[in-house]
Design goal:
By secondary structure, this protein is of the alpha+beta class. The chain has 2 domains: 144 residues, FAD/NAD(P)-binding domain, CATH 3.50.50.60; 176 residues, D-Amino Acid Oxidase, Chain A, domain 2 (2-Layer Sandwich). The protein is built from 11 helices and 21 strands. The strands form 4 sheets. Strands 5, 6, 7, 14, 15, 16, 17, 18 and 19 form a 9-stranded mixed sheet that branches. It has a 6-stranded mixed sheet with strand order 9-2-1-13-21-20. Strands 3-8-4 form a 3-stranded antiparallel sheet. A hairpin with a 2-residue loop joins strand 11 and strand 12. The longest helix is centred in the N-terminal third of the chain and has 20 residues. The model has no long low-confidence stretch (mean pLDDT 96).
């Protein structure tokens, strides 16, 4: 009996997650990537697997499933990963109140607790102690170095499951069970369109009719901290609590947002909340902002980077704040409140898109659930 075949278009995190789920179920998988390696949003991020940002229920469960898959792959493929969790710092009573409510509601659902200032500083020497009232500790967050990890996953899938990768191969047409790149064609039982560019160019009318926009994120990288100094958990200011839906369970969150709308109006206007994560070399990834629209200025706005760094200084004390890289990422974002887009424009063709800034956190779980629903559990 011949193996089922599948074509995956796009070698970012969604494409890799889809390829993995199919290959584990015995499919012969071929992945096409228009560039010589992934260069889009999948490598232009914190590398955060971030369950704390997801609301209780199916999305949090999906995030934890993703985290489990990330961990399994990281161990098997030798991918650097850091499971030190996260800290959200409070410097005002209303921020601490939201954290207290969050912990009270989630105490039996998540690995989280409220820390005193001394307990917080024991977790991270990089926290600013001045005026610190406490912090929310969560143990579920994991960090990878996205720039390396995405390529390492592709190599892992190739070696373990014989997934075939065609780099520098832009798919220009899908016709029934066949894909075309110039004069070359390939066929498969199923085709998955997992790249944002491919969704827009292969199905322009469908893309135009979809409630989707694009989000531009500005980010920075700081130099490796001296003498192998580590910040410990990923560090977040309290602005992150009004950004992530996971915090909406806290009854006091709307009041906190009202204060921020006055005191941090410019930050909310540009979708700025500030986080810092550290990779294996000691470098710090800092960000980010959120601008929405179908077309974005390719140039970064210096005042946005300055706002980010100014707020970062309110909750951190770092050894060396020299900026060595700045960049932006563009990712798809649904405008109807949905967390992912699954479309079947033709028999045997599936589009997976629209995950916003949750690709690293949710992709492995989403694609595992989708493929399991179609093909059953893996062997």
């Amino acid at each position: 009996m011949s193996r089922k075949t599948a074509i995956v278009i796009g070698a970012g995190i969604v494409g890799l997650a889809t390829a993995r789920a199919l290959a584990m179920r015995g499919h012969q998988v071929t992945v096409f990537e228009r560039n010589e390696h992934a260069v889009g949003a999948s490598i232009r991020n914190f590398g955060m697997v971030w369950p704390i940002g997801q609301p209780n229920g199916p999305l949090f469960e999906r995030a934890m499933l993703s985290r489990c898959i990330w961990k399994e792959i990281a161990v098997e493929a030798g991918i650097w990963h850091d499971e030190l969790g996260s800290l959200h710092m409070a410097y005002h009573d209303d921020e601490l109140r939201v954290m207290e409510e969050y912990v009270g509601i989630n105490r039996d659902l998540r690995d989280c607790r409220l820390l005193t200032p001394d307990q917080t500083l024991a977790k991270s020497a990089a926290v600013n102690p001045d005026g610190l009232k406490g912090a929310l500790w969560s143990g579920t967050e994991m960090i990878v170095e996205a720039r390396a990890a995405i390529g390492q996953i592709a190599k892992y899938l190739s070696e373990k499951y014989s997934v075939a990768f065609h780099w520098n191969t832009a798919i220009t047409e899908i016709n029934q069970n066949t894909v075309r790149s110039g004069t070359r064609i390939w066929s498969a039982d199923e085709i998955f369109v997992c790249g944002g560019d491919e969704f827009e160019t292969l199905y322009p009318e469908l893309f135009a009719a979809t409630p989707i926009t694009k989000c531009k994120l500005q980010m920075m990288r700081m130099i490796a901290q001296p003498e192998n100094w580590r910040i410990g958990p990923s560090l977040c200011g309290s602005l992150s609590m009004v950004h992530y839906p996971g915090f909406q369970v806290a009854p006091s969150l709307p009041a906190l947002r009202e204060r921020y709308e006055v005191e941090y109006a410019e930050y909310l206007k540009w979708g700025i909340h500030v986080m810092a994560s550290q990779n294996h070399t000691g470098e710090l990834t800092i960000g980010d902002s959120h601008e929405y629209g179908l077309v974005h200025d390719p140039f970064n706005k210096d005042f946005i980077n300055k706002l980010i760094l100014t707020y970062l200084a309110t909750f951190t004390r770092l050894k060396d704040t020299q900026i060595i890289q700045t960049w932006n990422g563009i990712l798809p974002k649904l405008t109807n409140g949905q967390t992912e887009l699954i479309l079947e424009p033709a028999d045997g063709v599936t589009i997976i898109n629209g995950m916003g800034g949750n690709g690293m956190t949710l992709s492995f779980g989403l694609c595992e659930q989708l493929i399991e629903a179609r093909h059953g559990k893996s062997a």
